Amino acid sequence: MDFIAVAVGIFLLIKGGDWLMRAAVALSLRFSIPKIVIGMTVVSFATSAPELIVSIQSAISGHPDLAIGNVVGSNIANLGLVLAITIMISPIDVTSSFYKTDWPMMILASLIFYFFIATDKVLMAYEGFIMFVLLMVFIVYLIKFQKQAVLDEAPEDDEVLETYKTLSYLFLGGFSLWLGSETLIKGAVSLAQNLGVSERIISVSIVSVGTSIPELSASVIAIINKEKAISLGNLVGSNIFNILAVMGVTSMIHPIALEDPGLLSNDIWWMLGISVLILPLVFFPKGSCLGWIDGVILFVLYGIFIFPLFL
Length: 311
What we know:
Distance between the termini: 23 Å
CATH architecture: Up-down Bundle
Shape: globular
CATH class: Mainly Alpha
Number of domains: 1
Strand content: under 5%
């Protein structure tokens, strides 16, 4: 039953995020908000909604390790699992914006997050505010100086939905995110207790992979349809949002106190290590490209991270 609860929770989160994004994009188009702004704000926040709702609910309900582990594990899964599988199927050409803007920002966000957590093992409201402000500055910079990169993130569907459809998606999305987060958190806590492992282990493995499923499915579908594969920038951008938006907003609502030392001594270091490793992989063995060899390296590393957690 615990596995079913977790699966149902993940499904509701994925559908809720999708419905919310459709409603948000429709509203943005109705009010004539430029596609550049929609791509970097509305769509990015909507696609991070599952992680955000899970983290907020976890922190408020007294399960801070689920909140932190969800983000840390999701960032590791985005690169070590989603990116790995994608580039093993089809190589990705890396643009200059990756090493000039995206990667440095991901590393900066990761280091700030680590510093705030390591200092006193609590992510306070003012620290969350600093992270959120940094995200806003980054978004303004992208819109102003990286317009082409941001346009790639913009929605391609220009359809303006009818009002009742927009409101329906908005309501269904919000309700599904709430119900999905409740179901997932209760299932994950019960699963951890029954398996005799910590909430942190469940969050950095099962929960984080579940919330990374949309990115993985989008990547594989793009490759099957011979369309432009999901860009490295999308996954790196997701990692930046996970830290600065999800952790930032969650800690502003409710301070997050670290309980399991393994998150600080092991998991965050894996997140930092894989994030740093992406840069040299982009240039070796072939410049400005990530191919199947890089994918195998990342996939093996992800396996080395996950399997010892359950031993």
